[in-house]
Amino acid sequence: MEADINMDALKSEIRQAIINTKANACPITMRLAWHASGTYDKRDGTGGSNGATMRFKLEAEDGANKGLSIVRDMLYPVKQKHPEISYADLWCLASCAAIEFSGGPKIPFKFGRLDHSDESRCPPNGRLPDAIKGADHIREVFGRMGFNDQEMVALLGGHTLGSCHLVRSGFDGPWTRNPLKFDNTYYKNLVELEWREKKWDGPKQYEDVATGEPMMLPADLAIKDDPEFRVWCELYAKDEKKFFDDFAKAYAKLISLGTPCDPFKAEAPVSDKEKLDIKFRAAAMHGSVGLCKELHTKGADANAQEKSSGRTALHKAAFWGHDATVAFLVQDCKVNVNTVDHNGDTALHDAAKFGHEKVVQLLLAGKVDASIKNKEGKDAHTIALDQDKPAVAQLLKK
Fold first, then answer.
1. CATH number for domain 7-116, candidates 3.30.300.130, 1.10.520.10, 3.40.50.10240, 3.20.20.120
2. pLDDT of residue 5 exceeding 80
3. Whether the predicted model's global pTM rises above the 0.90 cut
């Protein structure tokens, strides 16, 4: 999938879903994938991000996952546009993007997670870390997943992003004064500020002695007070780059536990045939009809569909209005003009949307079925009307 997918475009869609005028949901997006992944048990291979089992009531109603339905719903429109991407992959990729959008490191990522069809493989509730407990509990939970002390401290650095909310965890407040920025302030606060137990009716948490905020949880103070953990806390407080490097590796490992998606494992090479087809589609997208002809003579499949989107060379040429390339594909290559992509669009839908009259004429001459409706229930004529392309709408009406 990676060979074909437009990662920048996909991340842009994720950004629009989680950062908009209504909310900046980057922290909770990271939490979604963290909680989906943090159930892994290396002893029997159960749990983890594979399967996206938080879609089912059994896991969704684990108390630690309270509120996460909101961000799952926010990401749903992206999933609708990309049926080829599993929920499991989408949640993990969105969390990586959220970290990056917030100023954090780029997380190595690989597609390939699957979605389980029912709750039979949901992990037992209670596997996620309990913030009220200390160093032994941290080592027990993270050790169950296969992490060492350094990785544990690096992963807890994710607390630099976001806040605790009474209605979800019972705790209250942010770990830093800028909870929408991913940096190493969490560690700086942890080792440099003086902490006291907060006097309130809620569970045990700590506050800065001088100002009363930000806050820390018992698990946070545990990695400050434990001698082995503290070494890494102090290092990350001094060296943000080291924290970013270690966090990126540990987080990539976390979201890949129990999956076939190890981002550090060399990918299977793309075949020469696939490379040829990819080049052909790219040439069509850029209107390079001469290169299309050359690649076609070398064996490029003019009907080959992009794995990630279902789009063909004809879709790409029609989208950008390259009429000479469309003419070559339709008249010389005899491509299937009615192929639909993952959104249900034919090349005619794309040409109609942008008012490419010549391309529409070529497709109609090639016997395209103008009655085909996409997943939104719209045919090309309706799209032309919606996009205020009267000349194309008139062609299609005839």
1. 1.10.520.10
2. no
3. no
